[in-house]
Design brief:
Blueprint lengths: L2 E3 L6 E3 L2 E3 L9 H13 L4 E3 L8 H9 L8 E6 L14 H15 L4 E6 L8 H13 L3 E7 L3 H14 L4 E5 L13 H8 L2 E2 L37 H4 L2 H17 L3 H10 L8 E2 L4 H8 L8 H10 L8 H7 L3
Parallel strand pairs: 3-4, 3-10, 4-5, 5-6, 6-7, 7-8, 8-9
Antiparallel strand pairs: 1-2
Helix pairs in contact: 1-2, 2-3, 3-4, 5-6, 8-9, 8-11
């Protein structure tokens, strides 16, 4: 396992992050702990969860799983979504952030959170209120670093400006959906993060399993698959994943898998790992075999031509104003 800096911070994290969203929802505590132990044995030190995952159960399981190894783990969690029925049990107001942090600390069984992330933008709360509250948590020693999740490019830029002009703690990372079959991030969010030195922690790096190579053209997905059970409006829904463009992407992934002797998933993850400013893709394994396969994305590299082939076949459509701006640079 290789290690890299989280954004432009000084903390070092493994180039793969173990996501705990499945803990207490799709797998029980014993299986969750087994995944954590194997991940740590392989050199992983970065684990991500959220208060809303299984209504706090994921945090509880994660906390118990790393109890004896806490100081060697970079532990990440999130705040934003509803954790109760009250009007202040949601959002990123000072009240909800402070209450959310204390509740997460208790469930995790720790006195500090390494990376505390805003799970999504909250238009109802002034950004100054949010960043002031988060800065207070850092300066109180309850949080070490701050992160974002599911923000747009202009929202990322607003946080950078607020931090630089008003003295708030900067966000060091952004956790977005990003993969070879979900690259709309490249229009504006990725450039904003590159400019600000913010590291990317992609979730859904395998497109809900589409990039594992288990699906085939003109065949319906298995009934027990995540894609088959996704809601129609979700990006993971079969109608949105099984496009001609995505099948072309999968063809190239398969070709490179054959060239390298790696699995489809390992190739797709490796492309992300090598793509700036990605710090660590987040893998959400449900089975030990999935974890083992995903861990195989470390310790080797795609060559430049392979990276180029994957990048070109997965390029998002050219749309205005980005195509106009790109063309203008050539004049």
């Amino acid at each position: 396992m290789e290690y890299r800096r989280l954004g432009r911070s000084g903390v070092m994290v493994s180039e793969i992050c173990l996501g705990a969203m499945t803990f207490g929802r799709e797998i029980d505590e014993d299986d969750s702990k087994a995944l954590v132990d194997r991940f740590i044995e392989a050199g992983g030190n970065f684990i991500d969860t959220a208060d809303v995952y299984s209504s706090g159960t994921s945090e509880e399981i994660t906390g118990r799983a790393i109890k004896d190894k806490r100081d060697s783990i970079v532990l990440a969690t999130k705040v934003r979504f509803p954790m109760g029925e009250g009007p202040n049990d949601v959002g990123i107001s000072r009240k909800h952030i402070m209450q959310g942090c204390e509740a997460s600390l208790k469930r995790l069984g720790t006195d500090y959170i390494d990376l505390y992330q805003v799970h999504a933008w909250d238009a109802a709360t002034p950004l100054d209120e949010t960043m002031s509250a988060l800065t207070d948590l850092v300066r109180a020693g309850k949080v070490r670093y701050l992160g974002l999740s599911n923000f747009t490019g202009y929202q990322v830029a607003k946080t950078v400006h607020a931090a630089d002009t008003r003295g708030y703690e900067r966000f060091v990372s952004l956790q977005p959906q990003y993969s070879l079959v979900e690259r709309t991030l490249d229009y504006e969010v990725r450039p904003a993060c590159l400019d600000a030195g913010i590291g990317l922690l992609p979730w859904g790096p395998l497109g809900a399993g589409f990039l594992t190579g288990k699906y085939r053209r003109d065949e319906k997905p298995p009934e027990d698959s995540r894609i088959a059970n996704a809601e129609e409006e979700q990006a993971e829904h079969w109608s949105k994943r099984a496009t001609e463009r995505n099948w072309d992407v999968l063809d190239v992934v398969g070709q490179i898998a054959q060239e390298t002797g790696k699995s489809y998933a390992q190739v797709a993850l490796r492309w992300l790992i090598q793509r700036p400013p990605v710090t660590s893709p987040i893998i959400g394994a449900r089975k030990s075999e999935q974890l083992e396969d995903n861990l195989g994305a470390t310790g080797w590299e795609l060559d430049d031509k392979q990276v180029q082939r994957l990048t070109e076949v997965s390029e998002p459509p050219e749309i205005y104003p980005y195509n106009f701006v790109d063309d203008a640079q050539r004049i």
